Amino acid sequence: MVAPPDNDVLWAHGLTHTHDGSPALHGVSIGVREGEILAVSGPRGSGKTTLLRCLSGQVLPQQGEVWFNSTPVHTMRPHTRERLRRERFGWIDPEPALVPELTAWENAALPLMLRGTGRRAAKTAALEWLERLDIGGCARKRPHALLYSERQRVVVARALVGSPTVLFADEPTAPLHRAECAHVLRTLAAAARSHRITVVLATTCAETAALADRTVSLLDGRRVHSVSLPQASGTEGRAACSLSV
Ligand SMILES: Nc1ncnc2c1ncn2[C@@H]1O[C@H](COP(=O)(O)OP(=O)(O)OP(=O)(O)O)[C@@H](O)[C@H]1O
């Protein structure tokens, strides 16, 4: 076994995983430094989501090791991994999944309330993030009354509200239009840098990857030196993004 380097908040070695026999990762090793924004880039089906799920302890790789702050995640019991995810990690999916019965602020405040933060303090923190993401006016609306892009901003607020140590963002701006994409990514990057949140960002977009401090590339489940990703100018609407951070 190789010891993880001290300055990596996340470190994985030899990750191999298949989904029902369908190969997703082959011997992927990766280190994520504290406070960095790391892009995991690659075309669709290259293994980005599987890698993020392995790193965040959602999926146990069939082979390989994952370490968080020098603690092995791959040998943790399920409830310990759940607590780690709840207390130290944030997650943004490409699809904005919210609890339909709760308002926008209640959805955004959920991670704090699950940790036992009082309703009032959780509400204040959630409202601050909704304001920063320009949807403070939607705080009392339920998800059905929000635009798709507004729902995704609530998801981003929910991921940031608990100041996670590591934020995993799986194509976080895929559902957004060009201007919204840039704004959400700028907010996310600024929040990460000001709160020293480490970000692992899966993307198929070259301009989103350019936001990161560093990029690792995947192709067919393997680390490769680089991959060619589409530029925003060659795409339309939702997939496009334009950044200046
Ligand atoms: N639940 C699953 N069941 C079966 N095969 C899966 C499952 N999830 C992923 N795969 C397969 O594993 C491979 C890697 O998928 P993964 O979602 O990790 O890649 P990705 O780069 O995130 O792709 P995308 O951008 O489309 O989400 C693909 O061939 C995919 O079809």
Automatic annotation (TrEMBL):
Pfam families named among the record's database cross-references: ABC_tran
Entries under InterPro entries matching the protein: AAA+_ATPase, ABC_transporter-like_ATP-bd, ABC_transpr_LolD-like, P-loop_NTPase
SUPFAM superfamilies xrefs: P-loop containing nucleoside triphosphate hydrolases
Residue ranges occupied by any ABC transporter domain in the UniProt entry: 10-245
GO molecular function terms attached to this record: ATP binding; ATP hydrolysis activity; transmembrane transporter activity
GO-annotated cellular components: plasma membrane
Sorted UniProt keywords: ATP-binding, Nucleotide-binding
UniProt similarity note: Belongs to the ABC transporter superfamily.
Name assigned to this protein: ATP-binding cassette domain-containing protein
